Predict the structure.
Amino acid sequence: MTESRSPWPALWALVVGFFMILIDTTIVAVANPSIQQGLDTTTTGVIWVTSAYLLTYAVPLLVTGRLGDMFGPKRIYLIGLTIFTLASLWCGFADTLPGSGIGNLIAARAVQGLGAALMTPQTMAVITRTFAPNKRGTAMALWGATAGVATLIGPLLGGLLVDGPGWEWIFFVNVPIGVIAFVLAWRLVPNLETHVHKMDWLGIVLSSVGMFLLVFGLQEGTDNDWNGWVWASIIGGLVVIALFIWWQRINKNEPLLPLKLFKDRNFSLANATISTVGFAITSMFIPMVYFYQVVRGLSPTQTALMTVPTALMTLLLARLAGKLTDTVHPRYLVVPGMLVTAFSLWLTAVMFTPTMSIGLLLIPPTILGIGSAFMWGPISSTATRNLPMNAAGAGSGVYNTTRQVGAVLGSAAIATLLANRIAANLPAAAGSADGGEAGLGALPDALKDGFSTAMGQTLYLPAVVLVLGAVLAYFFVKPAHMREGGGVAPQIDSARTGEVAGASSPVKQGA
């Protein structure tokens, strides 16, 4: 295959698959109530449709990022894309296969998550390995704009499919997208240089077991009254994760988690910051969807239309955010972006009443889109600018792991808080908080005020977490290429390998 001198065609090809992953997440968020009714399951059961996906997405990312370094990002991406596409078929047929419909769907979503885990780090690794540091902001802006487009297309497409042929088609739609993405990646993504690595098998086991125990305990706590085995699972998960970090520190060979990457201040802070973003963005959709559909009686399509201002503002500002990311101190973009997003969630919570005008309810999503444009791309670019080329996949794996860990914890925490707030504001219907009349379907007018209050109070959690992320982002330092005397950024040497020339230097601490 002839390497292209421009890295853009390869990135565009990979973005199609990344777009599919994001669409799948947003489609499912809109379809949750319909899935719950169609499969006759509880609120906790339908939330596990998302949580299982996020869990199997998050746990393997450290490994899949390393696999991209070892075998090439293109090869691993194509394998993940194949798994994801076939699992989408499984999801669509979940209710027609033998056994429990919700059980089949959760299992299929778990396999989907594995496919997504194989794909995601490769996109960021290709950006790191083919774009010069002073150009990565623009590339990361495309990465962020992809999230904005998916935020628009996903809910809209999901609403149309749920209202039309049925919720199964939110998964079937992945099949043609997956085929197109495979052909594009096969033809356009270069075969980048691979690197020899050793697999840290003990690290793989410890990280996987620790994350599973922690998230499973958090997810099941409410339904089991936070009994002894739930706390044993949570504490056990924390202990195993602590053992994993200890093992990574003393491992003299090649640890799964390259702790040396965290010597770069911006890499460490960006990872912590993106985990708060993952937490907030994942958790905020659930109370929003239930408010619009249960309290306001909107259809899935109408609910999806409420997200249009967010997507449009993100798209309109993505190019500006990308240019600024390459020239402006990252804290001056990320901190305001996260605070504006947090404000939009607070305003949403205040405006969640049964009688609030739909027109006024479009104001918070518009503000959310403005803040979102200055979060995703700038944080990602800040994290990856100084990654050494032989650890691009591992660094991308770490970054996406922290993002997904935040998302998993957000999904688990919001489920617990949701049930708690429903019980507190609708005490007479507390027994229905698992998916009965108080949580789904036609809601008596007498209960709408209490249910609205519960959904609004739930949104305060992601808002507070975003403020915490803004505090972390405040301590970003100016990237090396922006500092006086920072040197000339490495240039693309696509005639040789398609990678950044001279990029084997170790990670350096920003000043």
Remarks:
- The domain at 8-199+256-481 is CATH 1.20.1250.20 (Growth Hormone; Chain: A;).
- The chain has two domains: 8-199+256-481, 200-255.
